[in-house]
Write a structure and sequence with these properties.
single chain, alpha+beta, SHC Adaptor Protein, 2 domains, 4-stranded antiparallel sheet, 3-stranded antiparallel sheet, 2 helices, 7 strands, 24% helix
Length: 125
């Protein structure tokens, strides 16, 4: 909890993964009112509807695109991803990869690929 001049917006990334976004309020009349301006990072918003329209909905749209991607896999742990890729038949002409949602960093996805003998994991936001 950040204090009475902060609130949290939460959205569902995918099953079991929720991202919490810290929103700083400025210009509050009292502890029970909404601030006149809302800030996420360095970006200002007028109200919660604008946060949903300009911040959450675009992220949710990108997340839906990734969740519907043919190489997206719902795997619970990083080790399961490694095992899955290491079982693939290796080819000199192809690097096997997949995309999965990060539970450690909600709102980020990970591309995992097998260039040689070791699986690499890199975050996508």
């Amino acid at each position: 909890m950040q204090g009475e001049d902060h609130l949290t917006v939460t959205w569902k990334v995918c099953d079991g993964i929720y991202q919490h976004i810290d929103v700083r309020e400025e210009g509050k009349e009292n502890a029970f009112s909404l601030g006149q301006s809302l800030w996420i990072g360095g970006e200002e918003f007028e109200d919660l509807d604008e946060i949903i329209a300009r911040y959450v909905n675009p992220m949710a749209s990108y997340a839906r695109d990734i969740l519907n991607y043919k190489y997206f896999k719902t795997l619970e742990r990083r080790q399961a991803v490694d095992v899955y890729l290491l079982k693939k038949e290796r080819s000199a002409n192809k690097i096997h990869y997949l995309v999965y949602a990060s539970k450690e960093f909600p709102g980020k996805f990970v591309i995992a690929y097998l260039p040689k003998d070791t699986v690499r994991h890199e975050f996508i936001k």
